[in-house]
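Repro:
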Amino acid sequence: MKHIKLIFDLPEQYHEFFISELMELDFEGFEQFDETLEAYIEAGRYNDFSRELIEKLVMQFPEAGFQETEAIEERNWNELWEQSIQPQKIGRFLVKPTWSGAAAEEGEIVLEIDPKMAFGTGYHATTRLMLRQLDKIGFSGKTVLDAGTGTGILAIAALKLGAESAVGFDIDPWSERNAAENFLLNGVEESAEVRFGGMETLSKDEKFEVTLANINRNALLELLPDLVFHTNDEGVILLSGLLQTDEPVVLERIAELGLLVSDKSTEEEWMLLQIRRK
């Protein structure tokens, strides 16, 4: 089966975000280089509509551009993907795929993540911001909600920091399966649960002490009232997936809901906000 290859001129820090968005358009293979992302889609699935959506996506990033190539023969997508995922250290965490022989140093917490193309490998600044912030929170005995769980990396990290239980949900079927696999790899399957879908997967009486949401701005603005509803009165909510240019509109929404920002961190052009009730 022939595929179309798109070549994106794109800084590395945007790769994981673009991969997540392109997967929604049925792209199924990716190769990452320093300033380039190559994405593959079945020739029959690439049309004017998907091209228009990609153009709108690229327009959000002035330094980005893309070009199409001719149809090419089938590739071994899994092998290409695995070659691009390397171990990395983020604060106290060592994030590594199972095929890596990287050893943890004393005091490091190992997160074994086999991505299978789901969002959340630690390569994106928004995931790194979350992992560093998690290490600032006392998790002992707490319950955790992970909205848009992706690979499950944040739920796993919270459990390894002492959380009692974690529930993650995601609308991506790849993510649902991948998170469940990663829970098993990290030995937290008894304390972690992944649900396929959105906020509707939660019952009205489910409340959590820590809520995590590493998703894009529009989704965060839409989900924030529900995230607050499902967070205990004394709980905290961590919001990532935000560009620093999103801050004014996000702060306005936070104020409308009677919340306040208790902490903030940034990396590159990305931002994390920790919020709570007043």
